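User: Structure with zinc ion, tokens only please.
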Amino acid sequence: MTTQAGMIKSADCLFCKIVRGEIPSKKVYDDKNTIAFLDINPATPGHVLVVPKKHAEDITKAGEEELSDTIVVVKKISELLMEKMNAIGVNVVQNNGKHAGQLVSHLHFHVIPRYPNDNVIITYQRAHLSESDLEEIRKKLSQQEKKDMDFDF
Ligand SMILES: [Zn+2]
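Assistant:
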């Protein structure tokens, strides 16, 4: 992607418009690199979106510094939801790509406070893979061979 294409994308991006204040939001947090605001269609009351100010389409495109700052704000918001909204738990949900349910192509973390009997269902079917399938996948994902790893399982 060229810089120009990136700028056009950023200009049209809903969350970039919120960052620039061109679209109003129910902001709950704002610092140099990160903002957080209420989701207008919340799973539960207090559902917050935490967004790095610098445009990145998804987690694979984000700079490590922005990402580090963003996850620290996710922690702060989680603590606030427990303290101020009396949440009894928090789900942090982060989707990458349309197929994974990402609706806005600007990296964001959903912080969803949980309450008794809130009827929120966050789930997936669990597959069963054989030991050899698991090992094949592990090898693909590993940066080094098993014998070089310094842990046993
Ligand atoms: Zn954006």
